[in-house]
Design goal:
The protein starts with a strand and ends with a helix. The protein contains eleven helices and 13 strands. With about 325 residues, the protein is α/β, with parallel strands linked by helices.
Length: about 325
């Protein structure tokens, strides 16, 4: 008799829930449970005999590392498969040290996950194999949040490799912002004398956008030094500009790989007055934004990044997402 296997997908991305379920729904012995954050995941583990848990590292309320630190919550052997956009070597090592049995990166390889699932006892019924419903409605914000999450993970790995320090993976905020709200935010940045803000424009495949980078903390110069950037003119913000360029370009490179659109970026510059007028010429205009904050684990430095795009750019990205799903 084939043993039934309870599967918990603990991830804040609904797209990940759907993707894994679609891949494994042809299994004749699988029952699925879902959690949108680490707290919900622990509650499920306390009440259900979960055989396999797919666990994201970056989630609201309680992240994947905290979940693993809280285990076990009962006497039952659960196989933990970390499925994360955070692909830093340190993230993998910490996950395995905390009890994870496997570590897979996002976006996951379907064949790899299928082989692993079979090894763990899932039985596939080939007659029930299905493909993605062509009429499946994908929430644009959810799909781009997942794209951003994967891009952030790859960007963090690039920065961590340069830095030699662990980067705390942020949760990307994907939202719409009116130009009047954007102008107000920029005005607030200008009034804050304790930070330096850099702006950098980018284009590619019909996508037009601008990135705004803010740096905080007493270790900004040390952060830049560890990244290999040097200051040759004390009156210029060369290190800050170089850091901002790395933050923007690392994200865009990873995003480009996913949507197959190459980006070109202009030279980053310290925030100028033109940006305020550039974004406030039409108070009724709405922009699409991706916002996140990178933090070094040891150094006192935070880097806040805001990507700003128009709705035409959003439509292009969504078209690319749908192409990749079919």
């Amino acid at each position: 008799m084939i043993k039934n296997i309870n599967i918990l997908i603990c991830d804040d991305s609904v797209l990940v829930h759907k993707s894994i379920t679609r891949l494994l729904q042809s299994c004749s012995n699988a029952t699925f449970f879902y959690a949108g954050n680490g707290k919900e995941g622990l509650d499920c583990l306390k009440n259900v005999d979960i055989d396999i848990m797919f666990l994201d590292l970056t989630m609201p309320i309680l992240d994947g590392f905290s979940v693993m630190k809280s285990l076990p919550v009962r006497e039952f052997d659960t196989t933990i498969i970390v499925l994360s956009a955070d692909i830093q070597l340190a993230a993998m090592e910490r996950s395995l040290a905390l009890g994870a049995h496997y570590f897979l990166s996002k976006p996951f390889n379907h064949d790899e996950l299928t082989v692993l699932s079979q090894r763990l006892g899932l039985v596939f019924d080939r007659s029930k194999l299905t493909t993605l419903d062509a009429h499946l409605v994908i929430d644009p914000v959810a799909s781009i949040r997942e794209l951003a999450n994967i891009a952030l993970g790859r960007g963090a790995a690039i920065i961590a490799d340069h830095l030699g320090d662990f980067i705390k993976m942020p949760l990307p905020s994907v939202a719409f912002m009116k130009s009047s709200d954007l102008a107000m935010a920029i005005a607030d940045i200008r009034n804050d004398k304790e930070l330096i803000a850099i702006t950098q424009r980018f284009v590619g495949g019909g996508i037009h956008g601008e990135a705004l980078v803010e740096l905080h903390g007493k270790d900004v110069d040390l952060f830049g030094e560890k990244l290999g950037f040097s200051q040759t003119d004390e009156y210029k913000n060369e290190v800050v500009i170089d850091i901002a360029n790395l933050m923007v370009s690392s994200f865009l490179v990873a995003l480009s790989e996913q949507i197959t659109i190459p980006f070109s970026v202009r030279q980053p510059i310290v925030l100028e007055e033109y940006m305020n007028s550039h974004h406030s010429h039409c108070d009724t205009q709405t922009f699409f934004t991706i916002e996140y904050t990178y933090k070094a684990e040891i150094l006192d430095v935070e880097c806040e990044v805001l990507f700003i795009m128009d709705n035409h750019s959003l439509a292009i990205i969504n078209d690319k997402v749908m192409e990749s799903l079919h």
